[in-house]
Amino acid sequence: MNKKLLILGGMIVLLVLLIPIPYHLKDGGTVVYKAITYKVLKVHRLDEDSETGYKDGLIIEILGFKIYDNIK
Which domain holds residue 57? Predict the structure, then answer.
């Protein structure tokens, strides 16, 4: 019984750490998926200096460290 309770508690903790909550920013369409351990930004920002008028790309951060960034 105690082992099952421990496994259930561990699974609940993992769910809390890994399930993201989406935030929609008002900067042209950027969406931020944020969980406690990571953050993914799908960037679509207004930018007057760009040829298309937008900056597009993806940013991935894990534990606060930027792992991937391909904003054009």
Answer: 20-69
